[in-house]
Each structure stands twice: as structure tokens, then as C-alpha cells.
Design goal:
By secondary structure, this protein is of the alpha+beta class. It has 2 domains: about 5-95 and about 120-175, Butyryl-CoA Dehydrogenase, subunit A, domain 3 (Up-down Bundle), CATH 1.20.140; about 180-300, Nuclear Transport Factor 2, Chain: A. It is built from 12 helices and 7 strands. A hairpin with a 2-residue loop joins strand 4 (about 245-255) and strand 5 (about 255-260).
């Protein structure tokens, strides 16, 4: 068999895992695909001679590429002329969501979303430094030992363990634990949507946690709204924006209850992801940036 064909077949065996690693690192499906492609290019150029554990080698390469991309992203944010749009200090960009049908999840999504990498977790990961994020993702999510992570981040195994521990504390302190019952999540989200459609402010407050956070990316500067009354007002405003013929349908957004709104021609208008904890909505992430929506894979929603 031709060596390149053999390498390509071996690489495909690991692609889903590599994409999952990159997605957790970058919070962007397009950047994750770029990182995985770069891993393939490096493998195709160097070959697998002398590589005892191809999966481990590819994971390390993908992690290094993702780390460099994160560092480059941080550098670009410090250069206003290269910044595509202004972002107020402290606001967090809504990550690229993984969207699937409300009644099932395909194998590709299961690989990406293993270990419940919800939008809320991705938002928290955005607050970590690149090396903290890498140490946490590789160790806590993919069970890579610290002595293998250490060379990637340029630290000792002990220092790498400390990076992951610090990241873990921040993640546990900042992210709510979603209710495990998906059907119950969907009931709460349905009640929220019905209240928004009917303009029932009291019913909205009943399903919103007092400290609920809403994040929205509509194409301009990201917005963040906190508190049940403020979020309820935003929900009523957003509901009134729905034009004639616009359809909202239940969906899985990063493995949790969500909603995708589309215009009559089937073009996406928004993707909303919800974090439901204790029977109430604690976080809402809305992606309504037309450019970013156009790059999402919504094929799972096709009838």
C-alpha cells in the first residue's frame, strides 16, 4: 500500500479525537478544523517512522498547534488595527456552538461533546491562560498524564499539575452544573420561549435564575446582560424581532437544550444555547452574527 494512503487511513482513525481536542482548546469549529488539518500536513511531511504511539503523537501536535493559535489570538487582540471589531473589556465571545437535532446526536457530535463540553464550560475556558487551558483540557478531559503535557507547555510535570489544578478551581467556581435530565431542560426552555412569545413577564421571571447571564453576539460588539429582570426584558425584545415566517425549532446545542431560528428560506437567524440548573435557566448564549452563522454546520437539522 502507498505510504501516503496508509498514513491518511491511520489519520482518519484519530480525526474525531483530534477535532475534539482542538475544539475544547479553541472554542471555534473552523479553527479546530484548521488545527487538525495542520496536524495532518505535519504527519504527511514527516511520516510515521519512529512514532510508537501515533494517536499520542497526533494529539501532541494538535495541542501544540492549538496552543500557538491561542497565543496568536491573544496577540492580535492587543493590536487594535488588526482587531475586526471592538470588544468591551471583560466581555466573553459566544463560542461556536455544535448544533444537532433535539431527538438525537450523531457520532461526530458525540465525539466533539464527550464529557459535556457545554457552551457554559467553553466560556469559562476562555478566561484561562493558554497554558492553563491546555493543561486542563488534556489532563481532565483526555486523561493525558502530566509528564506528557509538560513538554508542550514548556514546564515541569509538577508545574503543569499546578496549572491544571488552578484551572480546575476556576472552572468549578465559575460554571454551573447543568441538570442531567435533558427532557426537563427542554421543558424549561419551552416554557421560557412560550412566555417570551406571549409577552408574559412574570412567567419569564419564574423560569430564570435571579443571577442569570445572557451573552449575545449579533455581529457588533458582544453583549452581556445579567439578572432575571434585565434578561426577561431582553427576551421580550428579541422575541419581537422575529419577522413573518420565521421558525424556531428545538435543537441540541452542545449537548444541551437549545433553539435554532430560521427564516422562510431556511437561513439561520440565531442559535440559542441554554444552561438549566436547578430547574431554572442560569445562562443563555445567543449567536446571531450572520457571518458566523453562515459558517456553522447545521446539516443535522435537515429534514
Amino acid at each position: 500500500m502507498d505510504e501516503q494512503v496508509w498514513l491518511a487511513e491511520r489519520f482518519e482513525e484519530h480525526r474525531s479525537r483530534l477535532r475534539a481536542v482542538a475544539y475544547r482548546m479553541l472554542g471555534s469549529t473552523s479553527e479546530a478544523d484548521d488545527a487538525v488539518q495542520e496536524a495532518w500536513l505535519r504527519l504527511s511531511r514527516s511520516g510515521a517512522e519512529g512514532v510508537e504511539n501515533l494517536g499520542g503523537w497526533l494529539t501532541t501536535v494538535t495541542a501544540r498547534v492549538s496552543l500557538n493559535m491561542l497565543r496568536s489570538r491573544g496577540t492580535r487582540r492587543e493590536e487594535p488595527l488588526e482587531k475586526p471589531r471592538s470588544m468591551p473589556s471583560g466581555l466573553r465571545v459566544v463560542p461556536d456552538p455544535i448544533v444537532g437535532r433535539a431527538d438525537n446526536t450523531d457520532p461526530e457530535q458525540e465525539a466533539l461533546l464527550a464529557d459535556s463540553v457545554g457552551l457554559a464550560l467553553l466560556v469559562v475556558l476562555e478566561t484561562l491562560s493558554p497554558v492553563e487551558r491546555l493543561a486542563f483540557v488534556l489532563h481532565d478531559t483526555f486523561a493525558m498524564p502530566f509528564h506528557e503535557i509538560a513538554p508542550i507547555v514548556g514546564r515541569s510535570p509538577t508545574a503543569t499539575r499546578q496549572l491544571a489544578s488552578r484551572a480546575r478551581r476556576r472552572v468549578r467556581g465559575a460554571s454551573a452544573v447543568p441538570d442531567a435530565d435533558l427532557a426537563r431542560q427542554q421543558e424549561v426552555v419551552s416554557a421560557f420561549l412560550a412566555a417570551a412569545r406571549e409577552g408574559d413577564f412574570g412567567a419569564l421571571l419564574a423560569v430564570l435564575d435571579p443571577d442569570v447571564v445572557l451573552r449575545a453576539d449579533t455581529g457588533g460588539p458582544p453583549r452581556e446582560v445579567r439578572g432575571a429582570r434585565a434578561v426577561a426584558n431582553q427576551a421580550l425584545t428579541f422575541s419581537r424581532l422575529g419577522g413573518p415566517g420565521r421558525v424556531s425549532r428545538p435543537a441540541l446545542v452542545n449537548g444541551a437544550a437549545g433553539v435554532v431560528s430560521q427564516d422562510p428560506d431556511g437561513r439561520p437567524f440565531s442559535v440559542m444555547g441554554f444552561t438549566v440548573s436547578g430547574g431554572r435557566i442560569v445562562e443563555i448564549d445567543i449567536l446571531a452574527d450572520p457571518e458566523r452563522l453562515s459558517r456553522l454546520d447545521l446539516s443535522a437539522l435537515a429534514d
